[in-house]
Amino acid sequence: MDTTPYIEFAQEKLGVTYNNIELLITAFTHRSYVNEHKKTVSVHNERLEFLGDAVLELVVTEYLYSNFEEPEGILTNWRSALVRTESIGAAAAKFGFEPLLRLSRGEKRGSDRAREQILANSFEAVTGSLYLDQGYDAAKKFITKAILATFDEILKTGSWMDPKSHLQEVVQSKEGYTPVYKVLEEVGPDHDKMFTVGVFVNNVLRGQGDGPSKQAGQQKAAEAALQYYNS
Predict the structure, then answer these.
(1) Is the separation of the CB atoms in 148 and 56 below 8 Å?
(2) pLDDT tens string 96-116
(3) Catalytic residue IDs
């Protein structure tokens, strides 16, 4: 295969020249691609993802511990906001991961949520490959640029808080009401059901979201409502 796009990505986005470019290629290789190309590809990115997850958490934890005197609970919430799927998936998209992903034909047609998860997993895998090939400092530099640089915005918007708790604070402060959540729709069989949930303030719909459980739908609805109040 042509390794040029991966070499260029490493140099332009990661700022390094890989000693073993195959590590980076593996970081972009989804399990589904291996299943579809068994004769030519045998390794996918899940082990690198496992490693990168640990490196990512360590770098973020070290940064928060060294720079803030907040209690453990707040530091934990901040860390969760920085390393959650949405945060690292967005970072992967911003850094141009998508064209380099090696996916099966089926996964290429997957939902937006599935793609976000794949991007997040690849971010962790790339971090793992960078750690193995270039060392801790190189991985830390990448995480600082891709993830820690977003921390001020996370603090400013309050997105580090649980969306439902944050929404309740905002609504009670601005309107004096308590948000009420209602299931608007349920679709799919029992083993694969999708819930659409709306959040209402004084009987006015302020946001809605979908999820595989009512709780997940409520979180998405709260996030949508927060966008309304922050706009």
Answers:
(1) no
(2) 999 999 999 989 888 887 899
(3) 53, 124
